[in-house]
Amino acid sequence: EAQVTQNPRYLITVTGKKLTVTCSQNMNHEYMSWYRQDPGLGLRQIYYSMNVEVTDKGDVPEGYKVSRKEKRNFPLILESPSPNQTSLYFCASSLHQGTGELFFGEGSRLTVL
Amino acid sequence: EDQVTQSPEALRLQEGESSSLNCSYTVSGLRGLFWYRQDPGKGPEFLFTLYSAGEEKEKERLKATLTKKESFLHITAPKPEDSATYLCAVQPSRTPQGGSEKLVFGKGTKLTVNP
Lengths: 113, 115
Fold this sequence. Notes:
The structure holds two protein chains of two kinds. Chain A is mostly beta strands.
């Protein structure tokens, strides 16, 4: 089954404790992206990757890091989480760059205390 | 600045009561407009892509249309299972610096269809 898998789905952590949200897709997609979704603000792009070893900032990259060492994986790293990073995070992928037909994961709800 | 505005924010319909959701946009050149459906606790699910004014796409009870400034998602004879939040997104044209790979999302319309 074609899917984008995120882990963990739910996480409560404390300020400053580094964490990684993993994202894996099984569709051999070139393009992957991270979004955060906040009430009243909608979906905002954090980072994206057009292929292995190629990443770029989205609209709200501050406080986040990403890497793309393998085509299928695109982890999101919060080096020192803060309460304003409490949000619902989505990983998405598409067959190639330039298409808006994204496959989204189920989401990761993160709470930073 | 590229912007997407969806209206209404929330819409309640009776089963069988047809209606439309609106997505108005301002963008520096449009490569594509996309509609997604999002169920509670789930990621958005792709529905339609529209590329040029006058284009229409249909899927079951849903029909999406596009003009130069807005898109409509028409829902004909909705059923309770159509209840969801519907998201509209635009993809701006490529910038002189290269690709414009991001989508600009609206805040969504939450649709509730009562039996």
